[in-house]
Amino acid sequence: MSVVIIDYGSGNLRSAEKAVERIARERGLGTHVNVSSCAEHVLSADHIILPGVGAFGDCIKGLRALPGMVEALEDRVLKQGRPFLGICVGMQLLATQGHEHGIHSGLGWIEGEIKPLEIPAGMNLKIPHMGWNQLQISEAQARHPILKNIKDGDHAYFVHSFHFIPHNPDQILARVEYGQALAAIIGRDNIVGTQFHPEKSQTLGLDLIGNFLEWRP
């Protein structure tokens, strides 16, 4: 099984690579991990991971600057149905639009918008949302294969100032409370994304990555 982690100049590539290699080894999965900026590698990948750190506009510009990359992703993920995982801004790029330093078009794979975090008056919370927070997972959401052995109340590590508001709330697979209920995991069909960093979320993160590698949507 081949896994491609896309290198477009944004993301914790090494930590993501190490996390994938570790859980693949622990679960006995014959996995080859390739960190690549090459569209051809995406076209032959079994699983695809898009990390992301930074501003929405810069990240989508960097992704689109890679020759043939968006077209390869659309072919492999949307047309051929290969499992896809977006991490942090990599998840946000799935949206229709991002509202960070202007309005920028995203990939549009999951309809919705990326909006700035807003903390209600009187709440002693800082932006960015940084640190460990509990996931809120309903009984129905827990049935998704990506959440196998991950429980309501488990902690994940977040670092973000913007959040994903999907047009269809049924595409939220888990939430986190930070001044309001925010989307922590989104997904549809063969596509999932996490606002938190699974590669930094210890046991929970490794479980999620392992579930993704074993996922056959």
Description:
The protein is of the alpha/beta class. The protein has one domain: Class I glutamine amidotransferase (GATase) domain (Rossmann fold). Helices cover 26% and strands 30% of the residues. The chain contains 6 helices and 13 strands. The chain has a 9-stranded mixed β-sheet. The chain has a 4-stranded mixed β-sheet with strand order 6-5-7-10, covered by helices on one side. β5 and β6 form a beta hairpin. α1 packs across α6. The longest helix has 14 residues. It is globular.
Task: State mean pLDDT (0 to 100 scale).
Answer: 96
How many E-type strands?
A: 13
Q: Which series of helices and strands comes N to C?
A: EHEHEHHEHEEEEEEEEEH
Radius of gyration: 16 Å
What is the CATH class?
Alpha Beta
- The CATH topology turns out to be Rossmann fold
Q: Any low-confidence stretches, pLDDT <50, length ≥5?
A: none
CATH architecture: 3-Layer(aba) Sandwich
The largest sheet is: 9 strands, mixed
Shape: globular
Head-to-tail CA distance between termini:
15 Å
Offer a quick outline of the entry.
By secondary structure, the chain is an alpha/beta fold. It has one domain (2-214): Rossmann fold.
Note the main attributes of this structure.
single chain; 217 residues; alpha/beta; Rossmann fold; nine-stranded mixed sheet; four-stranded mixed sheet; 6 helices; globular
Helices and strands in order, then pairings?
Elements (H helix, E strand, L loop, with lengths): L1 E5 L6 H14 L5 E5 L2 H5 L3 E4 L5 H9 L4 H11 L4 E4 L1 H4 L4 E3 L3 E3 L6 E5 L12 E8 L18 E6 L1 E5 L5 E6 L3 E8 L2 E4 L7 H13 L3
